[in-house]
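chain below, 543 aa
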Amino acid sequence: MAEVIRMPKMSDTMEEGVIASWLVKEGDTVKSGDILAEVETDKATMELESYEDGVLLHIGIKEKESVPVNGVIAIIGKKGEDISGLLKEVAGGGSAAKKVEEKEEAPAPAATDTEAIDVSGIKASVIKMPKMSDTMTEGTIASWLKKVGEKVQSGDILAEVETDKATMELEAYEDGTLLYIGVKEGESVAVDGVMAIIGEKGADFEKLLKAQSAKQAEKATEVKEEPVTASASTSQVAKSAAVEQKNGAATSDNGRIKISPLARKMAEEKGYDLADITGSGDFGRIIKRDVEEYTPSVAKVVTAEKTAISLPQVVGEESFEEVSVSQMRKTIAKRLSESKFSSPHFYLTMEINMDKAIEARAAMNEFSPVKISYNDIVIKAVAAALRQHPKVNSSWLGDKIRYNHHIHIGVAVAVDEGLLVPVIRFADNKSLSHISGEVKQLAEKAHNKQLQPADWEGNTFTISNLGMFGIEEFTAIINPPDACILAVGGIKETAIVKDGQLVPGSVMKVTMSSDHRVVDGALGAAFLKTLKNLLENPVRILV
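prediction:
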């Protein structure tokens, strides 16, 4: 009988998927394990695997179209099979596969038991293991972050789940009390298996569990009567029952070793051969403890070319230290995350010849009351360039753009706990020696934690300079509310072309990150061109 293929939940936050490309077409014969299509989720492009053998009778979603989780993607069945009734059910939005089975088969006794259990008045919901990746058939509870009796809200993280690809967070979609936990830490549960129950305090969750058990019994009966139409999760349960011991490790009927995702990762990191490890979990499954207790005299490592080499066992002690996040670091993380994910960044990089700037700095420092740095010269040049390109000196306010008439330059200063950005106000009206003295004063206050709000508020443009650390080029995240930030690299001696000749020179790379909602590419490029001219001819800064 034909099976409906639905969009699986491939990530914890996935709501819909886009068919990037179909790798098969209608009429093609497919086998369980074949890749049907590539699906774009909210996190990555992943492969959609077939869990059925048969012929692809129908494709319901075109390439580049989206479909919600659990939406119908395709139908697989026997060649020539009539699926007109199934298509009508799909078009009507019903559970097609279930309704067709009800028409063709008599209700199983378990269905009567299910109907007898009335759960309509129970204010609680069953939390099932979601399908967190395209190839996931079960998940292992790495840790519970909530315990029975605790109140939870929608969005709270209930548990960490190890899948076949990563350890992911299981999010609650209901408000209520955690009434029941059905899977212990370290144990596995099949996709769609019961993990927990959340609901109103005192709700009869045991009645829900009975109803769920009756449903599972009904599905098990359907699997026995019609094994070809088994769903992905029930097929996996059937396969899990057919386990044999081979070379000390548990293997399924297709020869794959049964092992938890975490245990597999640990074994790969240590270079262990899985066939040499005996599993102590259910059905001989290899779990974390088995890998930790396995102590070979010589670990056999198989390379990509399948060539076995012998490596001596290396014994070491793992250790780490966890430090609570400071309020400064929390604020930095929050502000920069908001900036990165809310502002559409684009980047422009330019190379600047600093030969004349080096000469000018040396001459100015002969008379300046304070030592002028290259960063001071960049600040002054940026301020002068902003005066010529006022639209760069701006902020996005949602329903309007603010074009600042004053120029306040934020200067990123690294301190032990993070990054502070004190502000040089009216930088275009200050001399280089004034800027130099103020930067030094603010940096000292930042290191001594003496900055006041007035010292770091009001920036209209920001400069981040890592040149003193030997960094040649980098990109920076925009510092709100600015529309732009300039990342300044170090000055590097290199060969340059001058008057058609290859001569030694000193160059510096700068990269401007811009908010595309405010600053377009042409405007950003014009600003950098002006900045380049000012730094390559620093006398213009003083005019």
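The mean pLDDT is 80. The CA atoms of residues 111 and 439 lie 77 Å apart.
thats it, cya
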